[in-house]
Design a protein that fits this description.
By secondary structure, this protein is α+β, with helices and mostly antiparallel strands. It has helices spanning 15-26, 123-129, 135-150, 157-162, 167-178, 192-199, 227-233, 285-298, 398-419, 481-498; strands at residues 4-11, 31-34, 91-96, 99-104, 183-185, 237-240, 243-250, 256-263, 269-282, 311-314, 318-324, 341-345, 353-358, 368-375, 382-386, 391-395, 422-423, 434-435, 438-439, 443-445, 464-466. The strands form 5 sheets. Strands 1, 2, 6, 7, 8, 9 and 21 form a 7-stranded mixed beta sheet that branches. Strands 5, 11, 12, 13, 14, 17 and 18 form a 7-stranded antiparallel beta sheet that branches. It has a 3-stranded mixed beta sheet with strand order 3-4-19, with no helix packed on it. A hairpin with a 5-residue loop joins β7 (243-250) and β8 (256-263). It is globular and about 70 Å long. The chain binds flavin-adenine dinucleotide.
Length: 502
């Protein structure tokens, strides 16, 4: 059968992919988006699109028989995870030796499952990580553009101070202040006026009903409501779901062919398509885009790719940790799932840490303060492809994670000391006070200026581009999606201006 042909093919539908699809569509270029996950728009038998965090079902995770939540235990008991039936659920945990990577699956990628925190990195650190990118243009133009397009807003400070739903943040702020540490409000894409209506009993609860890592049924401006809705609105963009791109190859005429497996909701391959394209935009995320290019390089279908593909990977220094509060410092049975505050000690050159004050909405008082700390970890791992098993491996050691864990401990040891509090050891498995062996922020693998040129054009494959978190070299010091979005805006603007002229 003749291969399908599309002028532009985008793989994935997360931040980088969504920006790219919109701008291609606006420029009048017919664009096909392939997404391995499903479109999350149809309610299940319970009337909800997404399942709840407290009673997860098949919709929660990507083809699992049991959920694998980041907090595995409570009081050392395996009460958090639940048996489920395999299904293309919205959250995936990709396990490598020594490091697990959480990613979103579905139209909207990580935006479906993430905490919505839209944080602009410190300019000096941005320039240190991406020295060849014009920071002036980023901070004057592309970060503001990304914030506007993503619908970023901030919690009303007066409401924040009075609501029971953010008591957990205020307690952590107090304890940070006792240790001489600064806290900052963090913008988010969750619709805060909606959240206030939830609290007032005037709107269906989502962030106030524990919803986040398995999807939000209301309130969150995920990409399917922002960039991707606008992309479809151009009339030039089509999204094919449950399509997993597997192989890329170049044709003699300079076009590319992508082989994609279409799966059903049981995970069976029901069709294999060959799609020919003039230009190919990889937005499958740090792991997905890197894997496609590694496989193409190692199997010889794109033999001229750079040796840098697979290098420069990092976990953005992620560490999760939890403290046990005194009985009088209640954190509240009611906690909003959208974080709005962080401990900002990034300017402390001896031990830079930015720690998001994370909710733990269990529906009862537990006296736990939870944090997702972002540390400055200079360690980098390498992703490699193994043809025999058709798998990608991550070269990353526990010692490399320990750099992050130690930095987080320095900060929280200080907070514990000043408040006479201790860590919780029962939450992460293995009796540990910190978990530095999983990440929400995979970055790198196709680093800007190394595996690609300065605008994401893949070296050794003219007409192929990387658009997503794979471009960022392993660390950005804050939650990364705003940076990924702004960088994608910058890059596609240049590509449309230069590569599509004539
Ligand atoms: P992704 O968003 O990962 O999108 C990649 C898409 O490609 C996915 O939909 C995937 O299914 C698809 N795909 C992959 N491979 C293939 C293939 N072969 N064929 C077809 N499709 C494919 N960041 C923040 O800034 N703030 C936060 O508050 C925050 N909280 C987070 C909480 C959680 C639980 C998680 C998991 C992440 C969080 N993040 C947060 C991180 C953020 O979501 C990611 O950095 C971001 O989504 C990465 O964007 P991306 O464009 O690189 O790719």
């Amino acid at each position: 059968a003749a291969a399908d042909h599309t002028p532009a093919l985008v793989i994935g539908s997360g931040y980088g992919a969504a920006v790219t699809a919109l701008r291609l569509g606006e420029a009048g270029i017919p664009t096909l988006v392939l997404e391995m996950g499903r479109l999350w728009d149809t309610p299940g038998p319970d009337g909800k699109v997404f399942c709840s965090t407290r009673a997860p079902d098949h919709r929660s995770m990507w083809f699992r028989t049991r959920t694998e939540a980041p907090l595995a235990q409570f009081l050392w008991l395996d009460v958090v995870n639940k048996d489920i039936s395999p299904y293309p659920g919205v959250l995936d945990r990709v396990r490598f030796d020594g490091m697990s990577v959480y990613v979103g699956r579905g139209v909207g990628g990580g935006s479906l499952v993430n905490g919505g925190m839209a944080v602009t990195p410190q300019r000096a650190y941005f320039s240190e990580m991406l020295p060849t990118v014009d920071a002036g243009a980023m901070y004057d133009r592309y970060f503001p553009l990304a914030r506007r397009m993503l619908g970023v807003n901030t919690v009303d400070p007066a409401w924040f101070e009075s609501t029971e739903w953010y008591r957990f943040s205020r307690i952590s702020r107090k304890h940070a202040a006792n240790a001489g540490l600064r806290t900052v409000f963090v913008p988010n894409v969750y619709d805060f006026p909606y959240m206030q209506r939830e609290a007032a009993g005037q709107a269906v609860r989502s962030a106030l009903a524990g919803e986040v890592i398995y999807g939000n049924n209301h309130g969150k401006r995920s990409l399917d409501r922002t960039y991707l809705a606008a992309a479809l609105g151009t009339g030039n963009v089509t999204v094919d779901t449950l399509h997993r791109a597997r192989a890329l190859r170049a044709q003699p005429d300079g076009t590319y062919v992508v082989t994609a497996d279409r799966i059903d909701t049981a995970g069976r391959v029901v069709a294999t398509r060959e799609i020919c394209c003039t230009r190919l935009f990889l937005g499958a995320g740090s792991l997905g885009s890197t894997e496609l290019l590694l496989r193409a390089r190692e199997s010889g279908t794109l033999p001229d790719l750079s040796e840098h593909i697979g290098t420069g990977w990092g976990a953005n220094g992620n560490v999760m940790t939890a403290r046990a509060n005194h009985l009088w410092d209640t954190v509240g049975a009611h906690q909003a799932t959208m974080p709005v505050m962080g401990i900002d000690d990034w300017s402390n050159t001896a031990n830079p840490v930015f720690a998001e004050i994370a909710p733990l909405p269990m529906g009862f008082e537990h006296w736990i303060s939870l944090y997702l700390a972002i540390t400055r970890n200079p360690e980098r791992g390498t992703l490699t492809y193994h043809a025999g098993t058709d798998t990608m491996r991550l070269d990353w050691t526990p010692e490399q994670s320990k750099v992050s864990g130690d930095a987080a401990r320095k900060l929280f040891d200080r907070i514990n000391l000043r408040n006479a509090t201790i860590y919780r050891y029962d939450l992460f498995g293995g009796n540990r006070p910190v978990a530095d062996d999983f990440t929400y922020h995979p970055l790198g693998g196709c680093v800007l200026g190394r595996a690609t040129d300065e605008y994401g054009r893949v070296r050794g494959a003219p007409g192929v581009y990387v658009t997503d978190g794979a471009l960022v070299p392993g660390s950005i010091g804050v939650n990364p999606f705003l940076t990924i979005t702004a960088l994608a805006e910058r890059n596609i603007e240049r590509v449309l201006a230069e590569d599509y002229r004539r």
